[in-house]
Amino acid sequence: MTTLPTLFLSHGGPNIVTDDSEARDFLKGLSGLLPRPKAIVIASAHFETGGVSVVTDPNPDMIYDFGGFAPELYQMVYPAPGAPEMAERVFERLDAAGLEPSRITQRGYDHGTWTPLLLAYPQADIPVLQVSIDPDRDARWHFAVGRALAGLREEDILVIGSGHITHNLRAVFSAMRGGMAPDPAMAGMVAAFTDWFAQHLAAGDIETLLNWKRAAPFVRENHPSDEHLMPIFFALGAAGANAKGERVHASRQFGFFAFDAYLFG
């Protein structure tokens, strides 16, 4: 039995599957960085509920939660099985931690789940269990959700938080309309923010990280809303006591939209 690390992935738009990029190449090689897990537990920024929910669906369908992309993306299917038995064990762990979880009996894979997994594990033969985030809860709460599941990594279960290290879509759309010219000011704010996270994750400075909204630079410029950063705290909590983070990928789109990924353990 192997004690697996946990992961935080910046999943990008659904076109990460089809468009050449450094982030796509990283995800395609991700399985080579890790022992093969027997199951995957993933919290996607696109799966939002009040409180924490666990999906018990044995055969999740697909959710194409995007518009305006290439038609082929709406035909893609990731047929990995769900994990209803493991869902009950995860539910029990969350309940024992006082987190008052709920069950969702039917829910498909949103693009925060299926796009990175399609690239990393294209055979779709590893069971996948989805756990929600709550956009109205803070970093400390999501860290506690992850911490309740920390023992899973000792059972050959890979725990993933799928969000984005930066997520200012207004700046992204502006860059697209402007011919994708780099914005030096935005690039500088992204670099300061992502380097702050890299520094404090490498040091295992948990308390400072949980207070990121007061301590990190250029918070609003990088995250006008919080939901895409909450999976990093889920993954950090799931790595257990004294966890530290190694930045295993860093690339940029438009010169500023960051695709950082981390291994915790």
Automatic annotation (TrEMBL):
Keywords: Dioxygenase, Metal-binding, Oxidoreductase, Zinc
Alphabetical list of Pfam families matching this protein: LigB (PF02900)
Annotated ranges, domain Extradiol ring-cleavage dioxygenase class III enzyme subunit B: 36-252
Record-level Gene Ontology MF annotations: ferrous iron binding; oxidoreductase activity, acting on single donors with incorporation of molecular oxygen, incorporation of two atoms of oxygen; zinc ion binding
Source superkingdom: Bacteria
InterPro entries: Extradiol_dOase_DODA, Xdiol_dOase_suB
Cofactor dependency: Zn(2+)
Recorded family membership: Belongs to the DODA-type extradiol aromatic ring-opening dioxygenase family.
Name this polypeptide is given: Dioxygenase
Lineage of the organism: Bacteria, Pseudomonadati, Pseudomonadota, Alphaproteobacteria, Hyphomicrobiales
